[in-house]
Each structure stands twice: as C-alpha cells, then as structure tokens.
Amino acid sequence: MIFGWHRNRIILTMLLIGLVFSYSKDSFAQTPSEAINSGTQWFLSARYGMGIWAFKAPPDPLQEEFTADDFTPTYIRDTIEATMSLQYVNVSLTEYESTLDWLEFFALPTTAQLGQKIQILSKAGRNITKTVSEILTAQNIDGGFGGRAGYPSDVLDTAFALHGLVVTNSSDTTAINSAVNYLLSAQNADGGWGFAMGRVSHIYYTALVIRALATLPQNASLATALNKATAYLLTKQNPDGGFGHSASSGQGSSTVYETALVYQILVRTIYDPISWAKAEGYLLTTQSADGSWNQDAYSTALSLRALYDAERLRASQIQSVELYKSVNNQLQLSTTYDAYNRMVIKININDPNVRFDIQVRDSAGNIYNVAIINGEIIFDTGSYPPGTYTIIIRAIDITTGMVVDEESITFTIQPTLAIPTLGISIVPIYTYVTAAQDIKLNAYITNQSNIQADISITHEIKAPSNNIINTGSVNLTLSPNESNKLITLSQFNYQFTEAGEHPVTVNIYRGADLLQTASTKIHVSPLVRIEPKKSLTPSTVAPDGDKRIRIEIELEGKEKP
User: What is the dihedral sign for C-alpha 109, 112, 115, 116?
Assistant: First the structure.
C-alpha cells in the first residue's frame, strides 16, 4: 500500500468489475480480450469473394458475374469499417491486402467514405493524394463538406472528412480550420449535433464530431465545445449501460453501434470509469457466441475498436505512485515535507507509449509546477504555504492524446521556520592597538521558512580579558518571500587597548528558542615601533685596535628585551 491510494484503486476496480458482470446474467459474455479475439476471427471468416464484406451469403464458387441483389446494401460501409478494425487491432496485413487493393481503386460514392478511405490507405502506406483532392472538392464556402461535390454541407460528411484530413496529417490548414469553424457553429445549445446545422441533436452525429475535434490541438473554444458535447452524451446513457437515439425524445433503446461509438469516444476524451464500465458491460453481454454482434459487420467493427481502446487503457493504467523526500542525497518514502524540501515523484506504469501531465494543487486550487531533472520528476516545496496539497497525474497516450488514466495523491507541507545559514562579517577583522576606529558588524542569513516569524538577532564582542566591548540586538519580522537578508547589527567607534583575539558571537532567537549561532574574531596586534640606540666603545681606536658597537631596540607595546 502506497500512502492509502491503492485501497481506493482496489475499491474502484471491484466496483467496475461488479458493474461489468452485473450485465452477464443469462447471456453470453467474454472478457474484453476474448471478445476482441473472437470478433476478429468472425471478421476473417465472414469475407467472401474479393476479400470484402459484401455478400448476403457465400457466393457460388462458379459464379462469375454479380448483380446488386447479391450484395448487401451496406457492403461499402461494412468493408470500410471492417478493414479499419483489422488495422486497429493489428491483424497481419496479409489478411486484408486484397481488401486494400479493392478499396484503393474502387470509386466510393460519399465524402464520408472518402474520409475513411484516406485513413486506411495512409496507415497501409499507400498513396492518398488523389483521394485527398477528391475530398477537398466537396468542401463548400461555409467550410462544411457535402456528401459529394456541390452538395450542401452536413455534419456527417464534414466530421468524416475532417477526421480523415487530421489523422493523415494534411497540410491544408485552411480546409481544416474552415471545417472546424463549420462544426462549432453547427453545435446545438444542448451540446449535441444533428445531421446538419439546425437539426435536432443526435447521439451518433455528436459522437462523430467529438471524434474529429478531439484529434486536433486543443484551444479554449474546442475545449468548451467538447466539454458540452461529452456532457450531452453522458445524459443519454441508458440504465443498461448502452446508448440509443429516438427521433421523438432524442434518447431511445440502446443499440450496439451507437454504444460502441460513444464508448470509444468517452474513453478517448474524458475520465469517467463508471460510465466506461457500464458501456463495456453492455457490449460484452450483447456479443453473439460466434464472436460477432448480431452478425452485423458494422456493429462488430465499432465494438472491436471500442473494446480495443479500453484494453489499451487498462494496459496504460498507473500501477503505483510513490513520493520520496531527498535527504542528504538519499531518498526516503514520505508524504510530509518541510519548506525547501525536494520531492521525487516515482510513477510505475507498464506502457511506454504514454506521457504524463502532472499538476500540484493546494486546497485553494492554485497550481504549482513540477520539473523533469535528469529523468526524475521533481517538486521543490520552496516557501509554499503550509497545508495539504494534491498531486494529479494523468497518463496520456502519445499517439491519440487521450487520457488513459488519472491518479491523485495528497501530501502535507508543514509550517517551517528554518535559517540554515548565518554568516557574520566585521570590519576591521585585523587591526592594531591604536587610536579609536570605526567598527561595523553585519549578519547574513539564508531564510528557508514558509511562515512569517518575529526573530531577534543578538551580538556580543569581548576583549581577551573577557570584558564586553559591544553588545546589542536587532528585532525583525522574517517573511517567507525573503530568501536572503543582510542585517547591520552594530556600528560604533572604539579604541582597542588589548592585543589578542576578540571573540564575536551572533545568535538568532525566536522567543527563547535558539535558531542559529555563529562566531568570528577580531585579531588585534600590538603596535610595534622600533627605535634603535647605538654607542661605540671606545670612542677612538687605532686602525688595528678592538672596537665594540652596541645597539638597543625598544619595541613599543612589548617588554624591552
């Protein structure tokens, strides 16, 4: 257990498991990974002929020509969605290469399908230049796209076209920005979108627009629109966990395709484990025993992608968060810190394809920054006010930009009064026994406190004989935002009369509590004056006679030798 939050994780996990399996009574249900595998196998077995999902029944092997009656009405849509899902769940390219060949040269009838086509071909490394040009011809002056060139703009085709252009990294920013503006202007007051501007909001169209807008770099207007739209979708979730539209009320019985699409959108855009679990529970319990969803390629394709995203999310969940205090270059587990402590945040996660968005917030909602230093996530408590703080960690998928997990952990910064450094300087520090001179004593302190405190700084200067030369105190209020402070403790004029070391002591008190002390010395040397005295005995000598010279030296301030 790491500081209590693992218990919350376990409770939440048990709750989500309960929600999922509450839908499994009297129905076929697999785990998400099993559902993805069986659904994928159903897809691979449901293709006929040219490798497309087109026929109502397996065709006669001897049949050479086909009519419209042989194909399902939705074979283009189903083939596109199935191929996208096989790519999405990383099925080998050899399994659907013939489908890509068909798709590359088949003339698709709508802008929406062209938007999906460029996604599929781009991901497969095939040329999309011609298809992109074809899409752009369908853009109207209002920024929206119609079903074909010359058709009025609608939300459906605009959402598909925009999504395709963005995820294939189109350089046509004018077309993209115009499409975004069209969609933002078409949003209804309830947060949803209808088929076209002014139409009643619909779950399906709203989800499509969110999917397109969520892939863009976010700004204030996009964030506002997406928040309103996801809030709209959440109000439409049924008690069974699914989603469905009704023309009369806007909310109807749950359908697989709407639930799958909305579930994938919610997983990509918001962090709401309860809603996720309910939607996943609906999908798992509506899957057929053959791996499909109602033997419908479209519903099966959307369900596979939604469950796959959710599985990736589970793989990207944060396993643990640990907070360490750095003490003398050693790390100690801790959730309690003083001012000017260094915190090292360690996040355990198994997915290398995520980045982290980390915020530290105080109880008032103020946000503080963390730093990355030599690969470590660092937070310095500095002079931040004492109190309880929360670290919010979001794991974000590098590819999609979606939040795949979010965790929070609290820690406390204690009230701290700390003065780790007290330096003193005195001028002069070397002098002589001489006439009166000016003395100046300064103190320099390093403040590492996060509270305001009244302190007093006392000083005392003594002679070698222990007589007090100078003493005094300075009272001041120390504020957290004053990291360094220089204080003049005393200025006076004094004549040193004793040679030797004169001790200087400075103390800092808060009340009667000694916080810091420091000392130095004034070095006083005797004043030395040499006065030579010489004599010659005898005063007169022969050139070769003996002579004696005597020199006396008198040292002022010392005994005579």
Answer: negative
Give the pairing of strands 437-446 and 421-427: antiparallel
Q: Cis peptide before 415, with omega less than 30 degrees from 0?
A: no
Domain presence at residue 557 = no
> In this structure, what is the dihedral angle of CA atoms 60, 65, 69, 71, given to the nearest 10 degrees?
70
In a domain, 548, yes or no: no
Q: Residue 389 maps to which CATH number? A: 2.60.40
Do 432 and 330 reside in the same domain of the chain?
no
Residue 324 to residue 317: CA distance in whole angstroms: 21
Of the given ranges (148-162, 246-260, 326-340, 410-424), which has the lowest mean pLDDT?
Answer: 246-260
Task: State both tokens at 196.
Answer: 């076209």
- Supply the range of the domain harboring residue 492: 421-525
Measure the CA–CA gap between 341 and 326, rounded to whole angstroms: 7
Statement to judge: residues 118 and 173 lie in one domain? yes
Prediction pTM value: 0.60
Which of 254, 286, 315 is a domain's end point? Answer: 315
Same domain, 406 and 438: no
Q: What is the 3-state secondary structure (H, E, C) of 139-201?
A: ECCCCCECCCCCCCCEHHHHHHHHHHHHHCCCCCHHHHHHHHHHHHHHCCCCCCECCCCCCCC
Q: Are 155 and 186 in contact (CB under 8 A)?
A: yes
Domain count, the chain: 3
Residue appearing with tokens 């003065």: 419
Residue 537, domain member (yes or no): no
| Nearby residues of 446 by Cβ (< 8 Å), 6 or more positions away | 419, 420, 421, 483, 484
Using left for φ > 0, alpha for ψ between -120 and 50, and beta otherwise, residue 540 falls in beta
**490 contacts 439 by C-beta, under 8 angstroms:** yes
**234-259 CB burial, b ≥16 within 10 A, e <16:** bebbbebbbbbbeeeebebebbbbbb
Q: How far apart are CA 82 and CA 292, in angstroms?
A: 12
* Beta strands per DSSP E along 403-436: 403-413, 421-427, 430-432
Looking at the fold, whether 380 and 259 belong to one and the same domain comes out as: no
Strands 468-478 and 371-373: unpaired
Of the three residues 367, 388, 413, the one that is the final residue of a domain is: 413
- What CATH number should be reported for the domain holding residue 208? 1.50.10.20
pLDDT digits (tens, 9 = 90+) for 34-48: 999 999 999 888 776
211 and 288 share one domain: yes
* Within a domain: 303: yes
Residues 272 and 391 in one domain: no
Average pLDDT, the chain: 85
147 φ, ψ (degrees, to nearest 5): -60, -30
Q: How many helices (H) and strands (E) does the chain have?
A: 13, 20
Angle between helices 111-123 and 155-167 (to 10 degrees): 20
Neighbours of 536 (CB within 10 A): 11
Both 322 and 311 in one domain: the answer is no
Taking residues 67-91, report their average pLDDT.
82
> What string of DSSP letters covers 31-61?
-HHHHHHHHHHHHHHS-BTTTBS-BSSPPPT
Which whole-number Å values give the CA distances from 485 to 179, 366, 447, 512, in the listed order?
59, 28, 8, 22
